[in-house]
Structure formats: C-alpha cells, structure tokens
Amino acid sequence: MRPTDLLGGRPVAVIGAGLVGAGWAIVFARAGLDVRVYDADPGAIDRALALIAEQLKELESFGLIDDPAAIAEHLRPAYQLAESVEGAAYAQESVPERVDLKRRLMQDLQQVAPPNLVIGSSSSGIPASAFTHDLDIASRVLIVHPVNPPHLVPVVELVPSPATSGTAIEFVAALMQGLERSVVMVRKEVRGFVLNRLQGALLREAWALVEDGVASCEDIDRTVRDGLGWRWSFMGPFETIDLNAPGGVADYANRFRSLYREIAGSRTHEDAWQPELIRKVEAERRSLLSQDALAGRRAWRDRRLMAFAAQREKSLEQDAK
Amino acid sequence: MRPTDLLGGRPVAVIGAGLVGAGWAIVFARAGLDVRVYDADPGAIDRALALIAEQLKELESFGLIDDPAAIAEHLRPAYQLAESVEGAAYAQESVPERVDLKRRLMQDLQQVAPPNLVIGSSSSGIPASAFTHDLDIASRVLIVHPVNPPHLVPVVELVPSPATSGTAIEFVAALMQGLERSVVMVRKEVRGFVLNRLQGALLREAWALVEDGVASCEDIDRTVRDGLGWRWSFMGPFETIDLNAPGGVADYANRFRSLYREIAGSRTHEDAWQPELIRKVEAERRSLLSQDALAGRRAWRDRRLMAFAAQREKSLEQDAK
C-alpha cells in the first residue's frame, strides 16, 4: 500500500533534527507524506531544512529524484513537540543515543501524542523497553533503526519491545515497505540489534588485527572495500558463502568450518576498544585524512552512496527482466 | 612498472585450472602476459580455457575489456608441470586447499622450476610455511590470496612466510600492483589471514543470531546487502566509523565503545559451525534458492560484480577530477 493511503492523509512527525532526522524527513517527503520537523533546539530545525534542500539537489543530480521543490513543499518546521505530532499517524524520533533523553521524550509524548500515534525510534543499540517499559504508550513504540544517512541506505531494523502491539508492528512494517525501505525483523531485544552486532563482530577482529601488528588499518579497510565489501553490497554473508562452494552453504561449511573454528579459537582479546589502540588507529586515520578534511570526505561518501543507489536501481531493473 | 616490462617477456604459469586458476589466467592475460595453464587433470585445462573464453565475452559486454580475442591469444595449455614453468618468471598455484596437495606440488616444483621462479599460492587460510618450511624453494614462495572470482574483485593478500625473501615479496607486490590488484600486506602468518578472519568474525555472529532466533538468515543477509555492505563496498570498516562521528574515529569510539563492549560480552557461543545449525541455514537457503538454481545465481553474481566494477571505474575517474 502507498504510504499516503496507509496514513490516510495524516502527517508524520520527525523528532530530533540532526543528520538522522534530516535523512528521515527526506524519506517521508519523497513518498508524498507531509512532514513536521521538530527539535528541542529551534536553530537545529532551520539548519535541518537548509541541509535537506541541499541534499534534495544532490539526489536530483544523481537521477534519484525528479522534483526537489515538490518534495520540499511537504516539509514544515514545528517549534513545539505538541505541534509536531498533532493529528500525526507516525512519529520517528532521532534524538541522541542516551536512555535519559529518549525516556524524557517518551514521557513528554505520552502527554501530547494523539491516542493512535505510532512511534519509531532511531536508536542504534538501546532497546525500546529500556525507555518505555512502564509507560502507557509502550504498546505503540518500537525501534526503527536506519543506517546513516537514512535517505541513501535502504535498510531499517524493526525491533519491537515485549510491550509493542502486533498492530503497531504491522503498521510500521507496511509503512516502511511502502517507503521502499528494506525491512529486517529483529525478534528479540538483543543489545546492538542485528546490524551493530554484525558490525561490532567485524570491528572487534579489525581492532585486534591492528593491535597484533598483522596489518595496518588502511590495509584492513582495503581488504573490505576492494574485497569482502563487493559481494556483501548485493548478497549478504549467507548468500555469499552459499554461492562459494559447488553444493551451497552446507558444502561450504564442510569445506571451511575447521578454518573458521581455528580462527575463532585463536582470537583471545576480550575487549578491543582500548584507549591506546584507539589512539593508534586515530593517528593512522588522521595521517590519511586530516581533521579538516572529514566533512568533505563525508560529502564524498554521500555522493558515492548516491552513485551506488543509482547503479543498484539499474541492476534491479536488469534482474527483473 | 608494467607487468610485461617487469617480467621482461617471460611467461606466467597458472597451476590448478579450477575457477580460481581460470580467474587468475584472465588477470595475467589482460595485462599482456603470456600464460600457460596447467592442471594435473588434462580435461580441467580444456574446460578452463572454454570457461575463460565465455568470461572474456562477458567482460567485453560490461565494457571492462576491449578485445577478448587479443587477450585469449596470450593463453595456452601446458599438459606437464615442467612445461608450464619452463622459462616462467612467476607461477600462481590454485590447487585445492589441502596441505598435502600444496606440499606435493611444491616438492614437484622444486624439481622442475627454473632457479628464479617466484611462486604465489592462492591458499585462503593455510600459511606458506605449512607446506614449504623445509624446502629450498621456501624463499621464493608466498601466499597471494585473491577473492573469488579473482578477475572481478581486485583485492589480494600477500602473506610471506618467515623464509620468503624480501626480493620475492617486492617482486610480487610490484607485479600485483602492475596488474591493478589492490595489495594487502599481511605481516604475520595468522590463520585465515586478514580477509577470512574478518569474514569469519562476521559469520560467527551471523550463525549465532540465527541460532538464538534473533533473525532469519535472509534478514541477516538483508542487513548487510541493503545496509552495512553499501558503505563497506567503497570505504572499509575503519573509514566508515571515522566518518560516522563528527570528530572522527576516536570520537566514534568514545560514543559507541560501551555498546560494542556489551555486544562482545554478550556473545557466548564458542563454536557457531554446528551441524544442526548448518542444516537449518541450508534449509532456509534452499527454500530461497534451489540446488538447481545455484549455478545460474553464480552467473548472476558475476554479472553484478562486473556492473559494480564498471561503476567503480567511473567513480574513481570522478574522484580523480
């Protein structure tokens, strides 16, 4: 179902207007939904709307949208929380990743939200029950975790708390599918959900390899960006190994499990995120990319993601033929 | 230096003519090097040459090569090991991943190889010292591990053994750079090297998430192919987190290390590669893709990799402007 039909003309609230909130606003507005952008800091709202205008121009230049002005017309600022959610069918909160801030917001929303508002949280690791467990609105809150930037990368993790209603889960799943998000259902409130658990597992090994002097962090990045990342950018880890042995994944497991068991058994570092190691990696990264150049490189990253998105659309069309 | 200049007109031997060997033959021939393709099974040589002819046509259709016939002229079969390495400057062995087979091959090569032949092994996890430690040719052997298929994905891991000479390492590094490979220097002979250690860490968490009932293997694949994999396809894990906090990687570590520590601490499964779990994942994969469809899907994968390679060339040109 199209998002505009699913919401029956009701608007969406974007709460927290940082980079993640701005990305979400584009996702909703692109689909024709009316979006109210709120932040506790009024200056952040104006900055977000200016950033969105720039991002829409870039999306147009990559052929990913047709009419930036028409999309921008769906956006308006809301300088009060109550105003942002008035009459809204859905709210996406993207306030900073702190339990106390998310909890205070949920308490405030309980006061001002319309009775059937469903609330998605962009939390990247804190489960919803940690900030909704004793609130009446708990049944209408779940995690809807995007990748940064949300308007460029399609995946979202849906992580209900034990209190989230089936109705709310189904509504959000339908909404996200309508928004052309790639929906991952996370069935238990595990710390880090699926995405950051997978990223964390790979990062842990990456930190440890640097610490052990096996490879530089640049060579580790190279191993992924010129190797593993190519296949993972359109297949995922299970399909990759399923296609990497003549008989499929079980055949692959028979061939390689002793190697992977030895690898797992030889990793002894309990905690890779140590201050001295972080300083070492920071020093190598800053020798490759100065502090001043970070913002420019982020813009480069977003252009590469846009080129990737445009290429992916072509490939999906090709596959459909 | 161009590979043809570096080798001074001497040919290259491809030993072991499976999928990996066939891919290597294309890498060498594309750069104008004369290649002799050997396999202990003569039928495998003929099948490899036929496969290469098909693959060259596909590369042409994606604009990745101009003249398949000119490339194919650089290839010829060698039905004896001695014939394959006669006068050769470099040999790339891609026999199956078994210590006994690799060891026997090295013993044979010690008999027939010209005195200054350098030998790269496509081993994906067995270190060179495991099959060369007591041989005279040990100083001329190192691991040169590609990703499958080698002619499409640019990364290669160079893993010298303690016996490998500096001259051999420098020669292979220069050759691989000339072949437009993305060279990763692995400084210690760790099991799995860098690539399979990173892949193994992510797979271990992926298997465990399926076992714990947190997500289906399709949803785990989706998390990577529609999320993590987009960034990793051109940045690598360290650059990804370096750009994902305003102040760079140290700032990111300060913000997220407690999350990642909790994630690492909550992973208790010692060995994820258990028969029952493998059967479960195999069953889910076969429900998504039947055994009969595996070969077709591999061809699809290779076309997607070719499209990715063509897009990457455009992006690199764009970056260079």
Molecular structure report:
The structure is a homodimer of 321-residue chains. Chain A has 2 domains: 183 residues, Rossmann fold, CATH 3.40.50; 93 residues, Orthogonal Bundle (N-(1-d-carboxylethyl)-l-norvaline Dehydrogenase, domain 2), CATH 1.10.1040. In chain A, helix 7 links the parallel strand 5 and strand 6. By secondary structure, chain A is of the alpha/beta class. The first copy, chain A, contains 14 helices and 8 strands. The radius of gyration of chain A is 21 Å and the shape is globular. In chain A, helix 2 packs across helix 3 and helix 11 crosses helix 12. Chain A has an 8-stranded mixed sheet with strand order 3-2-1-4-5-6-7-8. At the A-B interface, strand 8, helix 9, helix 10, helix 11 and helix 12 of A face strand 8, helix 9, helix 10, helix 11 and helix 12 of B.
Tell me the series of helices and strands of chain A, N- to C-terminal.
HEHEHHEHEHEHEEHEHHHHHH
Q: How large, in whole angstroms, is the Cα Rg of chain A?
A: 21 Å
Number of helices of chain A: 14
Number of domains of chain A: 2
The CATH homologous superfamily of the largest domain in chain A corresponds to NAD(P)-binding Rossmann-like Domain
Mean pLDDT of chain A: 95
Distance linking N and C termini of chain A = 23 Å
Per CATH, the class of the largest domain in chain A reads Alpha Beta
Most residues in contact: chain pair: A-B, 109 and 110 residues
Strand order of the largest sheet of chain A: 3-2-1-4-5-6-7-8
Helix % of chain A is 40-55%
The portion of residues forming beta strands of chain A comes to 5-15%
How many strand units of chain A? 8
Describe the sheet with the most strands of chain A.
8 strands, mixed
Q: Say what oligomer this is.
A: homodimer
Q: What coarse outline of chain A follows from CA principal-axis ratios?
A: globular
Can you tell me the CATH topology of the largest domain in chain A?
Rossmann fold
SS class of chain A: alpha/beta
Uncertain stretches of chain A: none
**CATH-level-2 architecture of the largest domain in chain A:** 3-Layer(aba) Sandwich
